[in-house]
# Entry
Amino acid sequence: MVPVLIGMSILVFVTMRLIPGDVAVVFLGTKPTPEAIAAFREKAGLDQPMYLQYFDWIGRMLRGDVGISLTTGADIKTELANRLPITAELTILAILVAVVLAVPLGIIAALHHNKGLDLGLTSLGMIGLSLPNFWLGTLLAYFFAIKVQWFPPGGYIPFSDNPIGNLKSMTLPALALGLVSASVIMRMTRSSMLEVIRQDYVRTARAKGLRELVITRGHLLRNALIPVITIIGMEFGYIFAGAFLVEAVFYLPGIATYALLAVNQRDYPVLQTVVLLVTLVFMLVNLVVDVLYTYLDPRLRIG
Amino acid sequence: MAATAATAEPVLVTERSGGHLLRRATQNKLVVVGGVIVLVVLIAAIFAPVLAPHSPYEQFTTDQLVAPNSTYPLGTDELGRDVLSRLLYGARISIEVAAISVSIGLVIGGTLGMLAAFHGGAWDMIIMRFADILFAFPSLLLAIAVLAVLGPSLANVMVAIGIIFIPIFVRVTRAAGLVIVQEQYVEASRASGAGPVQIMFRHVLPNAMPLLLVQITLAISYAILAEAGLSFLGLGAQPPEPSWGSMLSTGRGFMSFAPWTAFGPGMAIFIAVLGFNILGDGLRDVLDPRMKN
# Structure
């Protein structure tokens, strides 16, 4: 993981330096004097060789000093501290929607393998898998915010200001983001259950006269849900990245909106911080999933 | 999505007779349903100039935001352009972006994957670490970062999405290559003096093809989705290009009184992605015997 992390940070750093347009010109306005540009470059450390700039950047990152935005001059850390909770809330609610819907439905589909209910649920899963979250979000906003005004069509209300309003403003975005992942998780739950159902120990359990409910709980679920956890972990990362589109649909001022603003303004310190942060979270979640996986599946434990 | 594409491991299909596979494919309901949808999208893309009632760019200034009627089957947008004609030309953009980005991923990723499988050692280590690093990024974020560097345009979207596919195809071809390289007929062919390139094209590629075909189909579906998403964010197609994603993004603003401006492109993206997803699932059932449920 450490080599990947180092490689990733180098890639992010080099990629961001490739952004065309002189940062100094962006920062200083349309017609800066050459002296002003030179002074800015020196102050920002841009006159140093690339590898020194990289070490300087990594060093500051590790100390938690992520720098200031080139366009607004605002401290990126403060900005992130304001925006991260919004994206985090969206991600957590979306994963909640996904898991609460997908796992039971996947189990039901598997237990009714090849019957009408299974067919209906798998078809629904296929539809969900093919619905882009930004189109689903638009549809949800159209029906539940414009046609019947149950939820606001967009915008963010802080939880501390109005808890009910906050949840209302997050419901549609969380659904738009969560339902697509629910399809992926449901498909995985179903196929994982089907795999376990064929195992000998399930047949043995049935042969010795255990009730179906006991078999489902004790034998099927405990084994079938292990791969499902991996998929949930992976989906967590995809949901976090999918927030880029959903935040745009619902005008949520989270970190994705921040990064998009930075892309349009070529504000590379902001962009590289957000890319690094999101990727780091993505990798950490995968690491936690791996650890959880070994914990849940004794076969993978060594010694 | 990329998640599903990445987790599949290759299984060799020893059946080499094309006719048999084709018969099995046409008997699979998913392949048929998905295939028909894909065919409709392809026909729309190829024959857009013939099928479209109007030019996708022509602005009928007196007919702005007109509801669907006989002249404009799917209505007009805020500039008085025919939505149906724009959707048909939009299919061209989607298919073009998908074809080129998947080719980029396939050629670069496939070559690297085979090099890793063939040479092993340092080659393998360096290529796989590189793939791991690319894989560490959430795919959409990687595309956005690439577009930040290259600037927003459709051509750059193809490159950005192509880069997402590189690590996926590296892993698939490497895994297939590793298995096939150990087969006796490859050893025999090597003993009789065949070079690595010959072995790659004669043995590895044909054997990896069934699995690659499944990955390619799923990658196309992801490419259509990603192009639409990036254009939706304003990072892909630029006005007046009729990309489904940017049409949806603009149409959303008129949703409350002219919902057809958003419904057309939204449904078009959904149907195209659905078609390739169903086809990919069906092909996996037919070509990858291990995945049958």
Summary: Residues 42 and 100 of chain B are 15 Å apart (CA to CA). The interface with chain A takes residues 1-4, 129-130, 132-133, 136-141, 144-149, 151, 221, 225, 228-229, 232-235, 248, 252, 255-256, 259, 262, 266, 269-270, 273-274, 277-278, 281, 293 of chain B (CB under 8 Å).
